[in-house]
Amino acid sequence: MRKILLSAFIIVQLLNGNRVKAQRQEFSGWGAYFHTQKFSKHWGALFDAQFRSADEIKYLKHPLIRPALSYYFNPNQLASVGYLFTGTYNHAPEGNTFRREHRSFEQFIHNHKVNTSIAVQHRFRLEQRYVDQLQEKDAFFAQRFRYFVRGVVPFKKESTFNKGAFVGLQNEVFANVQNRDKVNGSIFDQNRAYVALGYRVSKQFDVEAGYLNQFINQVEQNTMNHILQVALYTRLGF
Predict the structure, then answer these.
(1) For residue 76, is it within any domain?
(2) Confidence label for 188 from pLDDT (cuts 50, 70 and 90)
(3) What is the pTM of this model?
(4) What count of other Cβ atoms lies within 10 Å of the Cβ of residue 12?
(5) pLDDT digits (tens, 9 = 90+) for 136-169
(6) Please, what sign has the CA dihedral across residues 124, 181, 67, 150?
(7) Residue 150 belongs to domain spanning
(8) Which residues contact 205 (CB under 8 A, 6 or more apart)?
């Protein structure tokens, strides 16, 4: 798992070209709910809702709603297509604004175990972004690729982990693949590294809280966002 996270860090540095920019520090809070539903041997659904604050947790900045339909090739591999609605609230003395964004996406997930007890998930996602601006002429379309890897490490080494404490480790790299000049002019978009302490209440329910470091590559200056995240996970039909 450490090798995977180190490789992701190296990739980020290569994509970013080690360019030196001014860097802004932010501190925010994210709340997230993730649900996995199995309808039958091959069909299922995914859903997540997230609520992300502005700097210093002053107000809700980004709400996200993301449903998806999934097809299971086998218990450990599935492909999904879905839709996301999100937006950006900005509070300013001259007035509050909300910029909407719609996305469609396609993804493939592969799950496996390391050392019989550590569950690892790899997710490959291509998303199409339809971003509204405050003025219609400034709206744009772009595509972005995301690679996500997550490991769940139980405190107790068991081949079947149904209850108990665990550590969650994950990293996600974002790369602009189309119309990157509309985003930041670079292939590298952002990176999210996360470590959490969680508890599996049952086979169907996890709760966790942790620290997420979000590094955003921007045109004039980069942003380093330090985030406290609380997340709930539910699974049904398995």
Answers:
(1) yes
(2) very high
(3) 0.90
(4) 19
(5) 667 899 999 999 999 999 999 888 899 999 999 9
(6) positive
(7) 2-121+131-236
(8) 232, 233, 234, 235
Is residue 212 situated within a structural domain? Answer: yes
Answer yes or no: is pLDDT of 196 > 70. Answer: yes
pLDDT tens, 1-25? 555 555 555 555 555 554 567 899 9
- What would the DSSP string read from start to end of the chain? -HHHHHHHHHHHHHHHTT---EEEEEEEEEEEEEEEEE-SSSEEEEEEEEEEE-GGG-SEEEEEEEEEEEEEEETTEEEEEEEEEEEEEE--TT--EEEEEEEEEEEEEEEEEETTTEEEEEEEEEEEEEE--SSGGG-EEEEEEEEEEEEEEESS--SS--SEEEEEEEEEEEEEEE-GGGTTSSSEEEEEEEEEEEEEEETTEEEEEEEEEEEE--SSEEEEEEEEEEEEEEEE--
**Beta strands 22-38 and 221-236: pairing type?**
parallel
> 77-90 and 60-74 as β-strands: parallel, antiparallel, unpaired?
antiparallel
Cβ–Cβ under 8 Å, residues 211 and 227: yes
Alpha-carbon 127 to chain mean position: 12
Number of domains in the chain: 1
Side chain identity at 45, as an amino acid letter? A
The encoded tokens of residue 119 equal: 């569950």
**Comparing C-alpha atoms, which of 117, 121, 164, 115 is closest to residue 4?**
121
Q: What is the CATH number of the domain that holds 69?
A: 2.40.160
Tokens (6 digits) for 84: 């996301």
